[in-house]
Structures
1.
Amino acid sequence: MVLGKRSDYGDAKYAGVQVPFSDDIPKTVESYGLCGFDFVVAPLVRESWRPPAPAVLDNGALPSPLERSDCLYINSSQWANQVVGAVSDWIQPDAANPALRQRSVTALKTQLGWAAHLGLQAVVMPPPHAPGRCPNYAGVLNQALQSLTHMALWLTVPLVIPTPTPAHGADSGAAVSAVAGAGGLDGWEAWHQVRAQCDHHNLLGAALLVGPTLPSPASLKRWAGEPVKALLLPTAVFSANKRGYPVLPKAHQELVAAFFRLGVQVVITGEACHAVPPPAAAAAAAPGAKQVTPAPAAAAAVGPGGEPLGFTVTDPGESHPLRPYWEYLCFLFRRLEVVCEQERQEASYRDYLQVPLQPLQDNLESQTYETFEKDTQKYTLYEEAVFRALKDRQAAEAAAAGPRDPFDPANATDAPAASAASTSGRPVVLMVVGAGRGPLVRASMRAAARAGARLRVYAVEKNPNAVVHIQHMLRTEGWSDCVTLVSADMRHWQAPEPADILVSELLGSFGDNELSPECLDGAQRFLAPGGISIPQSYTSFLAPVTTHKLHHDVKAYKDLEHFETPYVVRLHRHYLLAPTQPLFTFVHPNTDAPIDNSRYDSLVFSRDPADGAAVLHGFAGYFECALYKDVLLSIHPPSHSVNMFSWFPIFFPLREPVYVPAGGEVGVQVWRCCAPHKVWYEWALSAPVAGPIHNVNGRSYWVGL
Ligand SMILES: C[S@@+](CC[C@H](N)C(=O)[O-])C[C@H]1O[C@@H](n2cnc3c(N)ncnc32)[C@H](O)[C@@H]1O
């Protein structure tokens, strides 16, 4: 049974269930599968299993610590896809009692060795028993991680850890934080301690244990940038609605929906799961699950409010007592906003690193232009900007020409504005510089038609291959008489006449990073005095970001060069530690003398103490561009142009993840450096700790002039 287009939100299976120890795991998988769940979380060994005392070796024999009947047993990769192992939760590698500590370490190593041998994809690890102080646990995990190749360890992390009583050995230094729920400790701190000691290993993920009390929404957002693999949702946090169906409180519903959007799967856990017999017997036996009315046989499945879920329950699992929980997850999943076409297109680019284009140094391929041209919203904004500029010119010329004769039919309000296009009678000279395959020429022609303006257009393009497309366009669209095609670099071309309007789109994800300033400085020679540049200005923005996935992907290259490269990336699983701030602004035409496009600035971002500590992996960059007056083109989140997808944000990585304490500051210094043949950025952290300057002298990354 499929829940929906899961691929829209990630490829992971989405709903699992914790089961008791089973001798016959294929049967368990099958029975819970019939009930709807995609996978089970099963103990690796019986609850009663303890590691045997070290054996006296006889004649080199190596006795196995596990008997066949002690442990989860699978022998097929088919089951490995549907079983997540669970390590015994009596294990306490940091117990004060040395015997328990030693036994725990042995048991942990034995169970992880067994799980790896079975080829499981993941294993759920018990929570740190002493949050914030479990060095031995972290040490064993770290050792295990060194030898794992694909099996992931999901550390159980309670979102809120109950404050330990003195009997549990709590002492004053524990990570108490305002972000934890009432009277608890911040689970994020416990997680960070372990993963930092494991050097942010990519096979270590978090399985968040959701309790009845949730931390504040602002502090929960930190998890968006972390490697959360599952939400553990105990049946105890559900309550029964008046129809007897299990439902979640509103805050929990929002939490589950937010994690579904990030592609995180949910595991139903708790006593109820343990008390449930296999389905064959379930119909006869009273369910251990509380307050649940099993769904009627062969009925249309309904959500908790009685609304149809869009499928009919006919399989044998429908009477399973956990079935209503699965149906409730379906209901939450289906309630997610419908994914729009743009999101669907972008889904495969999520959190995928791309090196920025260099349209000045390189010649773009036809397919790249084709992708640009799909973004109709971008061209609509340019059309509007050109239209407004033409109208303003018409108004200015009309004002300069003096009062109009109201009896002159040419001045009637509904007369074609063409007659007023230029009171001087000459067409407006509009130059599209960097015309590509011609879409901005087309947008300008549409604007002129709307404004009733006569245009003389020059389409200037330095890519000789793109020019061929414009030649074709001029023929097919009948513009040969008013559009002149110029195959040249705008910085060196000698224009035959001054331009009234200079239209360009040379912007990168960080605004100036594709060298729009350098190109337009070269082209403004032929802009008439008082002429208009579209765009008029652009500003880059930065924000500190948590993004475990991207940091890991950069680190995987195992070299400095990749840590000193900014990437274009559709940020998905990420968290901004503070609101964005403006960085560099460029204005066109540039009236500075002499012109200097190098820049330096430092920014300080302050974290709200209530949001808790967080980890910093780098900086997310965006731009906002004033095409003409208030016609904005923006990928800056607060002003992002609706339905525009030409640019993804940019990511500046830091070599090492940095802990930012609650209420702490993040300081960054950024340089835009210019040399005769290249432009590059350098960046460095100044707070909470000073860090090395990245990309010194453009040694790893630069943009060619
Ligand atoms: C980002 S593309 C935009 C293309 C097109 N205007 C569009 O919107 O689809 C930038 C274009 O500017 C061209 N370009 C970049 N620098 C240039 C220069 N100095 N002179 C002429 N063309 C340039 C590139 O070859 C490329 O076709």
2.
Amino acid sequence: MPTTEREPGARDGPSPRDLDCAYFDAWRCRSCTLLDTPYARQLADKQGGVADALPAMRWHAPFASAPGGFRNKAKMAVAGTLERPTIGILAADGTGIDLQACPLHERPIVEAMPVLEDFVRTARLTPYDVPSRRGELKHLIVTASPDGELALRLVLRSSEALPRVAKHLPALADALPLASASVNLLPEHKAVLEGEHETVLLGGTLTMRVNEVPLRLKPRSFFQTNTAVAAGLYRQATAWIDAADPSRVLDLYCGVGGFALHAARPGRAVAGVEVAADAIDAARETAAEIGAGASFAVGDAGSVDLEGAQAPELVVVNPPRRGIGALAARLDASAAERVLYSSCNPVSLARDLAAMPHLRPVQGRLFDMFPHTGHAEVLVELERR
Ligand SMILES: C[S@@+](CC[C@H](N)C(=O)[O-])C[C@H]1O[C@@H](n2cnc3c(N)ncnc32)[C@H](O)[C@@H]1O
């Protein structure tokens, strides 16, 4: 039966579901479209979907997630009133739906939410009201590290409330394990999460220790959403890289250096390229801290030099959802013997693989970064024919 025909609160008898969510049952949030499907079934369906879309290679058993408490980042819209703010999502009419106890989020995030609600009141951060375009506080973005520390970002309409945030921040830092706190300004009335301008008020870096590699997250940098599954993804990529044992590895769209810093070995030249300067700063800091022989540069992955004496033998690509575009043809024509393609979008992945006829997909693995949704993250190894 289509979900739209269901009555609010209705359940299909005793559910074998693996994660209970009162918001889902009350029809306050239906973002987890597969929540009524047992997790093992979800995983089998996703695996079947990617194997059907991308045949002709060996598919390893999928890497499963925990069914709940796996999201390291909460992106919460703030609405309601100063006295009774809602922290969660917005309904179609712009009113707030409170989802503070969303069971997808890691426990330290859930535990921080009531403290943050108090902070909104104490610092008098009037929630932004979308219908009337009034108010200041638009979003709360909270990231949790594996060590239990938090990075907090407040997305404000203007700098009007900045002095009050600064004044009350020390008390908040006493109440929460804050490694970083910053304010992001989003003056425009736009359906986006954040703006360009960020002011760091505390710390500025969250250490995400993944497989003992202390990756550093700055406020605006990308980080994989599911830390345990990301750890599995980096381990798998490293195992495939080590099996090929190339002497020169290039990590394109490297972010804060997850693939590159895991792959660094004595005698192996590893380089990363990424468009976001703060992510490159973070990658360099980690490389210096752990003594990894890896270099990082700010740049466009599409125009990186793949030729010459220093040409990479193995290239890792982990692009945004749109895929690698024209870079596919350049990789296909390059001297690289191998490509590891880490993708969050099987559609753009299939298109990019078709544009690399001289690189044969040999093996792939699904990493279930986003349980209860149809999203699939896959790692595919390509070998020159
Ligand atoms: C899916 S994330 C992957 C990040 C990283 N590999 C990781 O494991 O966390 C994609 C990254 O590509 C970067 N990016 C987007 N367009 C780019 C481009 N044209 N050139 C280089 N990097 C780009 C983004 O800033 C983002 O950090």
